[in-house]
Amino acid sequence: MKTLTHLLGLAALLSAGALAQTAPPTPRPIAPGEPPVTVTATRNEPTPLEFTADKLARLKVPAGFTLKVMATGLGNARMLHVMPDGGIYLSRRAQGDVWYLKDTNRDGLIRATERRQVAQNMKLAHGLDVRDGKLYVVGEKTIWVMDIARDGGLSVPRVFADGFPDAGQHPARSLKWGPDGYLYASFGSTNNDAPTPNPEEATMLRISPDGKTREIFARGLRHTIGFGWHPVSGVLYGADQGSDWHGDNIPPEEINVIQRGKNYGWPFCYGDKQPDPYVNVGNIPGKITKAEYCAGTQGSVLNYTAHAAAIAMTYYTGTQFPAEYRNDAFIAYRGSWNRTEPSGYEIARVVFGTQNTPERIEPFVTGFVFQDGEVWKQFGRVAGVATYTDGSLLFTDDQSGVLYRVLYTGGN
């Protein structure tokens, strides 16, 4: 673990890496004009361990719940989409493909004979959704569409829309069809904490049903790859990842109400419209102060531990869990690499109250990261999360290629 102390210049930091977890390069000095602000930033990447069955004992779920392994050997298993008949579409970003999984004998396991590749040659394939008998998949700069066959097979991918921003630091994209019949897609920033010339970066886009036109629906969203409409209120919520290298505790991970035409502040503001002291004010459009700029942005409705790295979100609409879980959200927090005590590496529950508004975030599945002496270690990076047809909760680990399943057993 290494600790770095430097000045405000780290705010202009650009990432040269191709993947979201790639560390940004050495910070560069900024132009004079602001008093220097010092931050202590820590790089701490827990040592990855191979998945083995004995490690399952480390994983914790709330009382009455049981955690099981449904499949292994899935490679870079990312996002999930569950079909009404129990079939599961799984994206694998590193392999650029989609697999179809189905527990045909209903024994709770998906074996090698119950899975197959159904699409390939899609660079950085990630988010996926289904509409009108077609599967839509978003990759680095392209959205593809495929016809779904009765057996779960797919037609050859066709380009639905393309020409999206370069990937840079955040190549994982996500998409979902909205209740208005438009396709919503999230495109993260290409760097850590500096604005870029392409207006479609760090945004949520709204794409026409034919894929021919699009608009910037919301901006100032650094990396909101987990989002969706609440099943009761219809409000669009999104989980945004905050900037790196600004210390252990800022900026927090955010839950936002995402509205058309709104600016959510990145890279200058975080949380409840708080000015980020480590970002160069000289980059703000117009001759206004950082505080003035942030006052005109949208603040978050909930915050969570900094650098936990939300990567997917789903609402629980099943009935297998106790009634108080229904219509709550579950978020996969992939895990930090730049915090003294690691955050994330967990599935968390967003508790919605009687007014169908989010009230708090609490851990749901934990234990993937642990301290062994002075060394932090981990054996899983959670990714996709979805409600299964029987009401259990599925989530993936893209480091070890595991599909997990959480059921409520009431202690039995």
UniProtKB/TrEMBL annotation:
The protein's matches in Pfam families, at most eight in alphabetical order, are given as:
TrAA12 (PF22807)
Segments forming domain Pyrroloquinoline quinone-dependent pyranose dehydrogenase beta-propeller: 60-405
Its keywords, alphabetically, are: Signal
Q: Which PANTHER family match?
A: HEDGEHOG-INTERACTING PROTEIN, MEMBRANE PROTEIN
Where does the UniProt annotation place the signal sequence?
A: 1-20
> Domain of life of the organism in this record?
Bacteria
Instruction: Tell me which SUPFAM superfamilies the record gives.
Output: Soluble quinoprotein glucose dehydrogenase (SSF50952)
Does the record bear Signal in its keywords?
A: yes
**What is the name listed in the Swiss-Prot or TrEMBL entry for this protein?**
Oxidoreductase
